[in-house]
């Protein structure tokens, strides 16, 4: 598992003009002078979206820690000693109360995450009830539950699920260096099942894990060249967690993060590109540069799954200072 009301389903722009990208083409974007790259990304952005509108999702961890998988960046893997307190699947009423509070604070989408390799059928039944109740509040629903077995995506669709998050995480060639307990193809298989069930796909990655720029470009190509690009693309900046194998990874140059946002915007012009993990460590000025480079979605609330997120008041102030509106 890794880590989206509007009265109707999301104003997700149609991914109309789908084209095939090559890694060299995306690398050429990365190699542009930053001002030229950001300018081009902003032009593409304005052809598809209101440049001053940002979609806000709130993310709740409904089952925390104790995961069997070995994702090297993750505080929730049972294989690493991260001081994380494990929690069982939350009761339905607590989830609904959290969703109601998020809606009152201005979130349009409520994402529920569970740290599993994949849901067992009896656990899935409980998540289905959560999806139904959150949907009934008039919010968009999203879940991230790990890998799905045949038939599970259809059940989620029937319950009213709008988005399923399942990140590709990183380039296929680098993947084995950070995750060994399941494969890149396993992730693609779940994305296929979600798409076939008629659920919107939320899939992105994490940068700053030690991958090369070519790996970052390849990840964007793998997402953009899916039969239909994901409607939502979270771009995470690694938050090194003590106790995980990536605890000592040096921080990525922030401008490389901006370049990744811009390249994702250009390669997936109609997708919502989300500033995700790592935003708390960013200055307001860097976030503004990311919005200029085409990011138009973010997590909103005091916490992501287990890492911090800029507090709501700081976000509201940033929106006011930049003249942004929440959608
Ligand atoms: S599958 Fe999800 S919860 Fe489990 S270790 Fe990997 S990222 Fe963490």
TrEMBL record:
[4Fe-4S] cluster binds at residues 67, 71, 74. The keyword Flavoprotein does not apply. Binds 1 [4Fe-4S] cluster. The cluster is coordinated with 3 cysteines and an exchangeable S-adenosyl-L-methionine. It catalyses: (4R,5S)-dethiobiotin + (sulfur carrier)-SH + 2 reduced [2Fe-2S]-[ferredoxin] + 2 S-adenosyl-L-methionine = (sulfur carrier)-H + biotin + 2 5'-deoxyadenosine + 2 L-methionine + 2 oxidized [2Fe-2S]-[ferredoxin]. SMART domains: BATS (SM00876), Elp3 (SM00729). It is an enzyme of class 2 (transferase). Its EC number is 2.8.1.6. Pfam families: BATS (PF06968), Radical_SAM (PF04055). One of its GO terms (biological process) is biotin biosynthetic process. The keyword Metal-binding applies. [2Fe-2S] cluster binds at residues 111, 142, 202, 274. Its cofactor is [4Fe-4S] cluster; [2Fe-2S] cluster. Pathway: Cofactor biosynthesis; biotin biosynthesis; biotin from 7,8-diaminononanoate: step 2/2. Residues 52-279 form the Radical SAM core domain. Keywords: 2Fe-2S, 4Fe-4S, Biotin biosynthesis, Iron, Iron-sulfur, Metal-binding, S-adenosyl-L-methionine, Transferase. Catalyzes the conversion of dethiobiotin (DTB) to biotin by the insertion of a sulfur atom into dethiobiotin via a radical-based mechanism. Belongs to the radical SAM superfamily. Biotin synthase family. Homodimer. This is Biotin synthase. It comes from Azonexus fungiphilus.
């Amino acid at each position: 598992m890794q880590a989206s009301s509007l009265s109707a389903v999301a104003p997700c722009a149609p991914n109309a003009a789908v084209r095939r990208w090559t890694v060299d083409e995306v690398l050429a974007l990365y190699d542009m002078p930053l001002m030229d790259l950001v300018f081009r990304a902003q032009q593409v952005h304005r052809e598809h979206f209101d440049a001053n509108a940002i979609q806000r999702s709130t993310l709740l961890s409904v089952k925390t820690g104790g995961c069997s998988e070995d994702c090297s960046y993750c505080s929730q893997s049972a294989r690493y000693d991260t001081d994380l307190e494990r929690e069982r699947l939350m009761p339905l009423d607590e989830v609904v109360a959290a969703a109601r509070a998020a809606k009152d604070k201005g979130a349009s989408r409520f994402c529920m995450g569970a740290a599993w390799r994949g849901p067992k059928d009896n656990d899935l039944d409980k998540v289905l009830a959560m999806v139904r109740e959150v949907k009934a509040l008039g919010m968009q629903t999203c879940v991230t539950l790990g890998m799905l077995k045949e038939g599970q995506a259809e059940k989620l669709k029937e319950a009213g699920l709008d988005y399923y998050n399942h990140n590709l995480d990183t380039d296929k060639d680098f993947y084995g260096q950070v995750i060994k307990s399941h494969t890149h193809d396993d992730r693609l298989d779940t994305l296929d099942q979600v798409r076939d069930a008629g659920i919107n796909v939320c899939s992105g990655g994490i940068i700053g894990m030690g991958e090369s720029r070519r790996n970052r470009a390849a990840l964007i190509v793998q997402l953009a060249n899916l039969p239909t690009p994901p409607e939502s693309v979270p771009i995470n900046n690694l938050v090194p967690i003590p106790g995980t194998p990536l605890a000592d990874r040096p921080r990525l140059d922030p401008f490389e993060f901006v370049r990744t946002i811009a390249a994702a915007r250009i390669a997936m012009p109609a997708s919502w590109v989300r500033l995700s993990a790592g935003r708390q460590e960013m200055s307001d000025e860097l976030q503004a540069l990311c919005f200029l480079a085409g990011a138009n979605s973010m997590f909103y609330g005091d916490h992501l799954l287990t890492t911090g997120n800029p507090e709501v008041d700081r976000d509201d102030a940033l929106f006011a200072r930049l003249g942004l509106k929440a959608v």
